[in-house]
Amino acid sequence: MTWNPRLDVVELLEAAGWVGDEENPLGLLRCNGAIWGVTSDGGDSSLTEPAAGETIEFPSGTPAEVIVAACLAAAEQLEDLVHKTGRLRTALASAKRRAARRQPHEREGLIFHLEREAKRLHEFVEIANAAAETATRFWAESSAEALKLREANEKLRRRVHELEALTSSAHAGGWSEQQGAEIRAQVGAFLAAPRMHPAVSAAGTVNHARELIAALLAQVNHLTAQAAAERSTEPATDPEGCGDARHDEPAA
Fold first, then answer.
1. Where is the composition biased (Basic and acidic residues) (predicted)?
2. Burial, 184: exposed, middle or buried (Cβ in 10 Å; 0-12, 13-18, 19+)?
3. How many of the other CB atoms lie within 10 Å of CB of 124?
4. For the chain, N or C: smaller number of CB within 10 Å?
């Protein structure tokens, strides 16, 4: 494996302070217990979070901003950004006081050091802000998409119950108890699924849900049509149940 497919992510993480793993410096990057690395020549990668040791898989097409946002969040660097900014301001104020007591050549060295630190922090702030904005945007989009899918599933489940009420398992095209149980289990499993991680929000889960809804809807429509066809062929009965209520019209 090489960094080539995801050099964009590598450069951003290195700028944020991530370093190569001691045993695999060209395959893994580490920071505060979080580990990220490329897992395939096609650009797939994964992030191992330090808290619970969970691994997040990123497909090759995942934007770099999404991966960086997840990595910075796992390493708790987004929260540490505020403290770093505060420390730099304190150091700058202290350095100004010290510079006033030093010789001109000493002041130049101190100023150069402060400017370099300020530039590094500014670059990190830009990366962190871009990552946070991207994560927020993707999370909002995935939440809206998930809400639409859940609403569609609720409508589908109501149609399933309506179909069960209108059909009978005794008929050839009816809805059997086993079929109803399978459909309810599939829909219920999706509704009970945990919330998606912001870094993989718009990937496989949404596509899988769309396929599930389409398949269930097609099955419901098919069985509904069968039930309607059976009802249209059944003989109508009179209100008192005395047989066929259809009478021939009197001849003209």
1. 243-252
2. middle
3. 20
4. C
Q: How far apart are CA 197 and CA 1, in angstroms?
A: 26
Give the pTM. 0.41
Residue 217 covered by a domain: yes
CA-derived radius of gyration, the chain: 31
69 & 82 share domain? no
Handedness of CA 226, 227, 232, 235 (dihedral sign): positive
Cα separation, 178 vs 169, in Å, equals: 10
Q: Which amino acid is at 90?
A: T
Q: What range defines the domain where residue 26 resides? A: 4-74
129 and 161 assigned to the same domain: no
241: left (phi over 0), alpha (psi -120 to 50) or beta: left
Q: CA 252, CA 239: separation in Å to the nearest integer?
A: 27
Domain count for the chain? 3
Local mean pLDDT, 10-residue blocks, the chain (252 residues): 82 87 86 90 89 83 84 77 63 69 66 72 71 73 77 77 59 55 66 51 49 61 66 57 46 40
